[in-house]
Each structure stands twice: as structure tokens, then as C-alpha cells.
From TrEMBL:
Keywords: Calcium, Hydrolase, Metal-binding, Protease, Serine protease, Signal, Zymogen. Its cofactor is Ca(2+). GO terms for molecular function: peptidase activity. This is Subtilase family serine protease. Residues 31-43 have a biased composition (Polar residues). Residues 26-51 are annotated as: Disordered. InterPro entries: Peptidase_S8/S53_dom_sf (IPR036852), Peptidase_S8_Ser-AS (IPR023828), S53_propep (IPR015366), Sedolisin_dom (IPR030400), Tripeptidyl-peptidase_I (IPR050819).
Length: 638
């Protein structure tokens, strides 16, 4: 299993502040006829080691991102206006209005070719790619490119900020590729990591929350009571199914709302070769209907790259993404059984390849909402990536496409970063960040709900003892890099540092109360289908996208930016308080991951541990946002 939200040396940037003008000036001061490209100096330079100038003949592959016609602020205004009025553009109308002009593309291309670089222009004028030598790049961008070592990597990067000539500077919003540091993303999925490739649930579990509570655990001496701090605890659910999840979240919804006529897009890296067959079998086995002909479709690249995780930290482990795709597809289908699902695969787990999926989604104009269960560690993302992501989200908003992201599975990220931080892209102000809850679902619906933050207890000397103080939990808190957006300020969200607050909303994510999924996996030398419980905010995002598909159906049109709607009227969300749920559940797992041959492992996974800076409270809170969606969310948007 991937470590959640791995970001390989994502460097610090505040994408909204003035351009860096002082740092590195001695090495690469802009000439009087040029202007600094905002935030183009690598943030890691302060701790990187300069190994000397790069060879003048070494290769450079740069990407120059172009400003939309009218500027970024005009596009932001158009996205907000479209979402407020529910008047959206087609992809063709968007490109006619906002693509960089031919004149701007020509000027940028002439600048780059004049320095000896070869250029190619993206079909819709999002960027210009420039390839050539270090010498040509030094001349074009007025930099000195050196070799560096930083954070265990050896890279090639400029010693200071890049610049562009006055006549093209307004058309350039970012540049990537001068710094060759690679960034990758990982899925936000949590399940046990057994020794074998495949994994199965142990059969000791509850069908509905809390319906199995043992008197003693089936340990050799049979003397350990299933109590934590004096409270008798039940076995964890076996994993909720589609009918259970719909009964919990969609109870009271108007008749006929099932996602019909709506298309939910899913993005991940790679593509499971058995996904449609697995999803159909899972649906039938759990009491739902399989996909009808054409209801599930895929958009795949010509080939996949970086598939072997053992070769380099920049590789991705394609098979590790298959379970993520399985969860996303089955969760959306569970919540919106009649919605179309269109899967867009990135050719690798690198940011640039996931960004390509957004370009395809926006330019096709088929999807109404996009769920994304992956991201990077923290939100100090490189400026070029930030600009590219945000341009994609804004194009989607202008066209009525909503983007939702998992907020991550590492709580406030203190364990990874040393200080509290949110994860990107979930923290982008133009997407909806979906956090996690621990959720008790019974025949009566959701009977208990709290924020997902887990401490793991193991049996030591006949008692439950904390073995992992903070095991995992839904991402949340306040960004140190992205300012609090206007819709949060208007709603009175008190951000202690002035940063973007997460999550916006939340859904079930705790692996202890997670979803049952079905997947073809490798068991030794053979592959076969089986089911297991899985969680993470990878579950929360597609659950929310699925129920929002019903709101889109009810509205009769796309919704574009969701957050202004949510923060203006959040009455359709259940305020998570922590009431009606136990202190934790007993988890019973096969020691070898697949059968009882190796015996069983017993643990208690607590609910809503206080070992992070996040907390649950009335109204919006840093663990669950405004809470989890209910039937009230399905009121048509006017």
C-alpha cells in the first residue's frame, strides 16, 4: 500500500503573494528589459547543496504556462459568476473566450526559439513546451542552471528566479522543468498491508454497526475482555455496502433520485484490467444492480509509465492504484446507482500526468462532477503545478463541472511535516475538500458519527495498551500557504493563521467503519475475486460525489463551484458531534492477510482521538467541516 499522500520534495510557494525579486539576485538578476516570473525560484534552495554549474549541453525540458485571455482574475470572476447564476459555457465557448490569443502564443514562442529552444504549443494554448540545452535555457530565462542535491535527490535547477522579456511577461504565469525535482501523488486509501498481495476480511465482524459484541475474545486463554477503559466494545463492521450507505445518507430523499442523467468522473493513475467485472459482481453480491451497457466508460492514455515502485521513489506501483480505482468506482455506483461513471486514467502518478486527465475532462465536457482520491504531502506545492491545477479547476467551474478531493489520511500532518498543515489539491479554494468521519450505520440509519482520528490499541499483558498513539485520521486544519477564501470569511470561519480551512464537508472514511469492496487480487500464483473492508478519505470523496450526483439530477444542471453554495446554506449537512458512537471497535484480522492459517490479530481502533490539533465541535470544525451530507443536500439548486 502506498504511504498516504506522498509528495516527493514539493517545494514551498505562496502562489498569491508578490513575485520573489530579491533572492538569488546576484546569480540571476533580471535585465532591465525583463520581468521576474512569479515564484519561479525553487523553494528548497535554502537547504539544497550546489554541486556546480550544469553542463551547457545538458538537456532541459521546460513548460511555460500561459495566462488565460483577460488574465487569471477575469477567469476567477467568471467561475464565481457562472456558479452563482448556473449559467455555464460549453468547452468550445470557454476556449473561444479564455484561451491565450494567437498573438500571445506567437510572442512567447518567438522568445523561446530566439534563444535556441524548440517549442511545441498545447492545442488549447494552456502552455508552450520548450526543449533544448542548459545553455539555451540560461539565455531564455536569464538564469544559471546548476546541479543540486536536496532531500535525498540529485537534480538540475536554476540558482535564482527565472524571468521573461517585457513583451511576453504578462502572458506567462509560471514555468516548470527548469527544476527537475519530480513530484508524485498517492491514493488516500487505508487497509491493512498483509505479507501477501491479496487481502481478505476475517469473518469476525458486525454486519450492521454494533450487532456483534463478544463476551470474550477467542484468544488461546479466552480471558481478555473486549473492553477499553471499562467500556464494552463491539466488533468492527464487516464493511458497509451500497444499500447500507444509501439507507444511511439518502434516507428521505425525493423518489426517483438515483443519479440518472448525470456523469461522475473519477481520476486515478493507471487502470485495473478487471474493474468493470469486479464492480458488477460486487453490486450483484451486495444486492445492487450491475452497470447497464455503456454506463461505465474509460478514457485511457496510449501507454502507462513509472509502473515499478521498486526502481525509484519516483515510480508509482501501478497495481497499488487498482484498489483505489475499485473503491472509487464502487462507492460512486453505491450512492448513485443510475449515474454514468467515466474513469480517466493518468499514465503515471506524477502531477503532470494527473493534470492531463483534467484537461481531457474539461475539454470533453461530459462530466458534471469529478472525484479525486489522491494528493500530495502538504500544500506547499510548486507554483507551476499550482497554476496548472487551478486553471483546470476554474475551467471546470466556468463549464459547470464540480471538483472534489480527499483531504488526506494523516490528520494535521504534524507526524509527517513537524507542523500542522493541510494537503493539496484539497486545499485549493476552487475545489471541495472532503474529510472523514467514523460512522455507526444500523438498520435505523446513521446512529453515531464523530471525527475520524485513530489510536491503535493492542493486547499487552491481558489489557488494551496504546501501540500507535496516532495511527491515521482525516485531513484538516488551516493552510500555511493558501489564504482563506471569501466564502469562508463570509461564513465567519475563524482561521487562526488566515489560511484556507479544511475540510469543507465529510463522509465516512474510518477504515474501521469503512466500505466493503470487491476486487480481483493476486493470492500467491493465482488471481481471484474477493471482498474486504477499506477506508480513508478516498472513500469519503466518492461517497460525496455520488450523493451530489443526485443533487445535480434534481437541479437539472451542473453546479460548478460547490463551496459558495455549501458555506451559504449548509442545512443539508449533519453537524457531527461525536454522539451515539462507542469509544472504538475491536478489529480482528488474519495475521497473514488471507486466511486463518496464521492465526488472528486483535486490536482496538479508537474513535476521535485527541492526539492532533484537530477537533470536533458545533458548526464548522477542523475535523469534519460542516458535517456529512443528508437528504437536505439534495434540494435543487436554483
Amino acid at each position: 500500500m502506498h504511504k498516504h499522500f506522498i509528495g516527493v520534495s514539493m517545494v514551498v510557494v505562496v502562489a498569491f503573494v508578490a513575485a520573489i525579486t530579491g533572492a538569488g539576485a546576484a546569480d540571476a538578476a533580471p535585465t532591465p528589459t525583463s520581468k521576474t516570473i512569479p515564484n519561479s525560484q525553487p523553494g528548497w534552495l535554502t537547504h539544497g547543496k550546489n554541486l556546480g554549474a550544469a553542463s551547457q549541453n545538458a538537456p532541459v525540458n521546460a513548460r511555460v504556462y500561459l495566462a488565460p485571455n483577460g488574465g487569471v482574475s477575469a477567469l476567477e470572476a467568471a467561475a464565481k459568476a457562472a456558479s452563482n447564476s448556473n449559467q455555464y459555457l460549453t468547452p468550445a465557448q470557454y476556449h473561444a473566450q479564455f484561451d491565450a490569443t494567437d498573438a500571445a502564443v506567437s510572442a512567447v514562442s518567438n522568445w523561446l526559439t530566439g534563444s535556441g529552444l524548440k517549442v511545441s504549443v498545447e492545442a488549447n494554448h494552456r502552455y508552450v513546451d520548450a526543449a533544448g540545452s542548459v545553455g539555451a535555457a540560461n539565455k531564455a530565462f536569464n538564469v544559471k542552471i546548476s546541479k543540486y542535491s536536496h532531500d535525498g535527490l540529485t537534480v538540475q535547477a536554476p540558482t535564482g528566479p527565472a524571468s521573461a522579456p517585457d513583451n511576453v511577461a504578462a502572458s506567462v504565469i509560471a514555468v516548470s522543468g527548469l527544476d527537475t525535482t519530480v513530484s508524485v501523488v498517492a491514493p488516500a486509501t487505508k487497509k491493512p498491508s498483509p505479507p501477501s498481495d491479496g487481502f481478505r476480511n476475517a469473518p469476525v465482524c458486525s454486519h450492521w454497526y454494533g450487532d456483534q459484541t463478544p463476551a470474550t475474545l477467542p484468544t488461546p486463554d479466552g480471558t481478555v475482555m473486549p473492553q477499553l477503559n471499562g467500556a464494552t466494545l463491539p466488533y468492527a463492521p464487516c464493511g458497509y455496502t451500497g444499500p447500507q450507505l444509501r439507507g444511511a445518507y439518502e434516507a428521505g430523499a425525493p423518489a426517483g433520485l438515483d443519479g440518472r442523467g448525470v456523469t461522475v468522473a473519477i481520476t486515478d493513475a493507471y487502470a485495473s484490467p478487471t474493474i468493470e467485472a469486479d464492480a458488477n459482481r460486487y453490486a450483484v453480491d451486495t444486492g445492487d444492480q450491475p452497470f447497464t451497457a455503456g454506463q461505465y466508460s474509460q478514457v485511457l492514455p496510449n501507454a502507462f509509465t513509472q509502473v515499478n515502485a521498486n526502481k525509484s521513489p519516483h515510480q508509482c506501483d501501478a497495481s497499488g492504484w487498482y484498489g483505489e480505482q475499485t473503491l472509487d468506482v464502487e462507492a460512486v455506483h453505491a450512492m448513485a446507482p443510475a449515474a454514468n461513471i467515466r474513469y480517466y486514467a493518468g499514465k503515471s502518478c506524477q502531477d503532470a500526468d494527473l493534470l492531463d486527465t483534467f484537461s481531457r475532462i474539461n475539454d470533453e465536457g461530459i462530466a458534471n462532477i469529478v472525484t479525486n482520491s489522491w494528493g500530495g504531502l502538504g500544500d506547499a506545492v510548486r507554483p507551476a503545478l499550482f497554476q496548472a491545477y487551478e486553471m483546470a479547476f476554474l475551467q471546470g467551474a466556468v463549464q459547470g463541472i464540480s471538483y472534489v478531493f480527499s483531504t488526506g489520511d494523516s490528520g494535521d500532518e504534524v507526524g509527517n511535516l513537524g507542523t500542522p498543515e493541510t494537503d493539496y489539491p484539497a486545499s485549493d479554494p476552487f475545489v471541495t475538500g472532503v474529510g472523514g468521519t467514523s460512522t455507526a450505520i444500523t438498520t435505523a440509519g446513521v446512529t453515531g458519527e464523530t471525527g475520524w482520528q485513530t489510536t491503535k490499541y493492542s493486547i499487552t499483558n491481558g489489557a488494551w495498551t496504546p501501540s500507535i498513539a496516532f495511527q491515521y485520521g482525516g485531513g484538516g486544519g488551516y493552510s500555511s500557504n493558501i489564504p482563506e477564501p471569501d466564502y469562508q470569511l463570509a461564513a465567519g470561519i475563524q482561521s487562526p493563521n488566515g489560511g484556507r480551512a479544511l475540510p469543507d464537508v465529510s463522509m465516512d472514511a474510518d477504515p474501521t467503519t469503512g466500505m466493503l469492496v470487491g476486487q480481483t487480487q493476486g493470492f500467491g500464483k493465482t488471481a481471484s475475486y474477493d471482498s474486504y473492508r477499506i477506508g480513508g478519505t478516498s472513500l469519503a470523496s466518492p461517497l460525496f460525489a455520488g450523493i451530489t450526483a443526485l443533487k445535480i439530477q434534481a437541479s437539472g444542471h451542473g453546479l460548478g463551484l460547490l463551496n459558495p453554495k455549501i458555506y451559504t446554506d449548509h442545512s443539508g449537512f449533519h453537524d457531527v458531534s461525536g454522539a451515539g458512537i462507542d469509544a472504538g471497535n475491536i478489529r480482528v484480522d488474519f495475521a497473514n492477510g488471507v486466511d486463518a492459517g496464521g492465526g488472528y490479530l486483535y486490536s482496538v481502533r479508537s474513535f476521535n482521538t485527541t492526539n492532533t490539533t484537530l477537533s470536533v465541535g458545533s458548526g464548522w470544525d477542523s475535523e469534519t467541516g460542516w458535517g456529512s451530507a443528508r437528504a437536505g443536500w439534495l434540494t435543487p439548486a436554483q
